[in-house]
Prior knowledge:
The complex is a heterodimer of chains A (300) and B (249). Chain A is α/β, with parallel strands linked by helices. Helices cover 35% and strands 28% of the residues of chain A. Chain A is built from eleven helices and 14 strands. In chain A, the strands form three sheets. In chain A, strands 6-7-8-3-9-10 form a six-stranded mixed β-sheet, with helices on both faces. In chain A, helix 3 (93-103) crosses helix 4 and helix 8 crosses helix 11. The longest helix of chain A is centred in the middle third of the chain and has 16 residues, at 167-182. The relative contact order of chain B is 0.15. Chain A binds chain B through residues 13, 50, 52-54, 72-73, 75-76, 78-80, 82, 84, 86-91, 95, 99-100, 102-105, 147-148, 151, and chain B through 2, 5-6, 8-9, 12-13, 16-17, 84-86, 88-96, 247-249.
Amino acid sequence: MTALSARALRKSYGDLEVVSGVDLAVAPGECFGLLGPNGAGKTTTLKLCLGLIEPDSGEIELLGEPVPRKAREARARVGVVPQFDNLDPDFTVEENLVVYARYFGIAKEEIRERISALLEFAGLAGRGDSKITTLSGGMKRRLTLARALVNDPQLVFMDEPTTGLDPQARHLIWERLRRLTQEGKTLVLTTHFMEEAERLCHRLAIMDRGRIIAEGSPRALIAEHIEPQVLEVHGPGYETWMQRAKGLAPRVERVGDTVYCYGEDIEPVLKSISGELSYLHRPASLEDVFLKLTGRDLRD
Amino acid sequence: MRWISVWRRNMLVWRKLFAAAVLSNLADPLIMLFGLGYGLGALLPSVEGMSYLAFFAAGQLCTATMFTASFESMFSGFSRMHGQKTWDAILYAPLTIDDIVAGEIVWAASKAWLTGSTILGVVVVFGLASSPWVLLALPAAFLVGLAFSAVGLIMCVLARGWDFFSYYMTLMMTPMMMISGVFFPAEQLPAPLLAVAKALPLYHGVQIVRPLVAGGPPPDLWLHAAVLLAYAAAGYTLAIYFARRRFSS
């Protein structure tokens, strides 16, 4: 039994195929990440899974319900945190939750009992009467998360949950998301922050140009696609040095005026650095995998 | 009946902004009614057997209802759909775009009904109505509201920007107000213009409400009501069609 599965999903807008044969399987209780550069088709994939748009072909099952045919039934047990906050600016914090609960057919009395817990979860205890316009970006994001939980969902979709937040706000969101997985909820999030994916996701899929090009746990992806050590070198004379480095490291590549060396054992390359060259020696990260697989070209 | 939660959301906002909402929906039509009604009324003999003030009040009830319905479904609707993305948020819940369209139309009609019935209250208080027949103007106002809310919501879901609504207002609503017998009997119009008026909803609203204010049953009541209902039904169907198209891309 999967919480969410998609088979051979395709969706085109005009001549442009945005989703070109995506397969997904998310297990209950899992935190699953969908990574990809801008325009990779992440948001469209989420919308397809929620039944907000219809696929051209393919099958989707969300919490046991076929989507889009029974999307309404599925959405009753799902929460959504969209990419851009769309809280109701005319309402207070508490009214936002009460009104949103009504869309799920939850009565005021029932939601009233849960509101203090939701506000506590969102770090907004005592702010129930505040106007939305007085909240900071992080507070709005947390309230949007609390709003996604009014129906006590089994699965929560999050589209770039921490984009635009400062580090403090981002860490608080991460802590809350971990709490949700501990409570057994399934999380499906899209992000282009590798750090976020590495910290939160049990498993992730990298998506590019409408396809899934790699899938696995963050560690497995790093182990599978990239050498464990990375050395970044730049500064005067880097071009000459690069010729030497090519004989010392298994993989050397140049991006602009920076040389990247990848390898199991990077010591010999490290020793060869001299003169005014600057360097950074670090373990390989998910970001290296991401850039290797999706390329370094800008995606606007 | 899921659309009721959409209606209730708008109702809650309205309750919070009560004073401003009532002022803008009522002050304008009432100033117009008494300004024009008394001013012109002093110059004119009775029109169709009524004082000009009462004659114009019946037309003004329908016009004000039309404006409230249209403003709410177009400008406020567009703000919720496009500016605030309230519709997007509702769609994550177990509601569909059809529920939202239904909730928005009935809401705008309700708000319009309130405008119409308040003007009706003024009509009664000032002794412009002569029999209980006038109470039938209450459901009539709701019907007028429903017809214009539905048409307004088509404009809302078709709009790419705020400017779009000025076409509808300037090219449709203003001329419609002039030829629908609000200010003077439509029968005075040249035949082709009268034919145009008869094809539009406002004329039929006036044809129902004016006899009721005068104190009797409106002739051809069911015909006029049927035209208004047809506009509401067609508007609802088209609004859903265009809303689905907008939200599926």
